[in-house]
Amino acid sequence: MKKIHYSIAILGLLTLGCKTKLVSQNEGVQPMSVVGTSANWELVNDLSDEFNTDEIDWKKWYKTDKLPNTTGWKWNNEQNVKLANGVAELTMRHNDNNQADGETYFKSGILKSKETMVTGYVEARIKGAVIDVPGPKNGFGVCPSFWLYSDFDRSVKNGKTIYCEIDVVELQQFDWHNGHQDDIQDSDHNLHLVKMEKGKGVWYRPKKHPETQLNKFRMPDDPSKNYHVYGCEVNEKEIIWYVDGKEIARKPNTDWYRPMNVTASLGLRRPFVKFSNNANRAVNPLEGEEAKKQLAGMPTSMYVDYIRVWKKR
């Protein structure tokens, strides 16, 4: 049953199919995190979704156009986004017969909001994607993500932001950093940025700027098999991350001020892609033994119970 937190006492009961949930009569739902106890938040309906209808509300989300450019896979929401029992399922599928599509071999699902935000609080209850294969690579291959990102504006002046991205959470990246190999319980909560410098766009990545952009967190269990609530407050001074209502990191907000779309998506990671030139490049999954083994775990889905966005009153 979907967990909803309210700041009011007037509640009703509504049964949708086999699922029962609490419903507020004046939308008094507040963030799960402690930030809700010190500030008064107003839910932004155009950026929020409980997924309690029969079909995805495509008036809120882009279905086919204006989706992020990807080099390692393609988006196909018609096939890979569905609702079941009040939960959105985003699925990654291997193309039939390994058929190449623009030199990619997989298609996935994404929810990208039509409306944007600059400051506010975002929250989603998510379960990651299981890739159940024998051996030490259990879980490798996909990255369930909840993130905010802007468009690119290359007309800005020197020192200004061309593109900004806030990863509320990225799961199952199995990152290698500073001599440490992450496992499935390690999550990433990072910042990405492109700034105009001397007339050119310069990428700022988390590993090169860990003090200002990199956050890692150790989950209490396997997030591919259990739901957790991931939240983030973006204000004029700071960006603050939360997991299950508890603060896990914060960074100064120096450059993340462009309007951003709220996004949940299931992307690929190694061994199905290789990162180079600021992008995940497609790898033919039948040309490597490691990728062939991971194919046994496809298709796989991440699950989004709700997405909620607030602004301060």
TrEMBL record:
GO biological process: carbohydrate metabolic process
Pfam families: Glyco_hydro_16 (PF00722)
Domain GH16: 23-313
Signal peptide: none
Family annotation (InterPro entries): Beta-glucanase-like (IPR000757), ConA-like_dom_sf (IPR013320), Glycosyl_Hydrlase_16 (IPR050546)
Molecular functions per Gene Ontology: hydrolase activity, hydrolyzing O-glycosyl compounds
Family: Belongs to the glycosyl hydrolase 16 family.
Protein name: Kappa-carrageenase
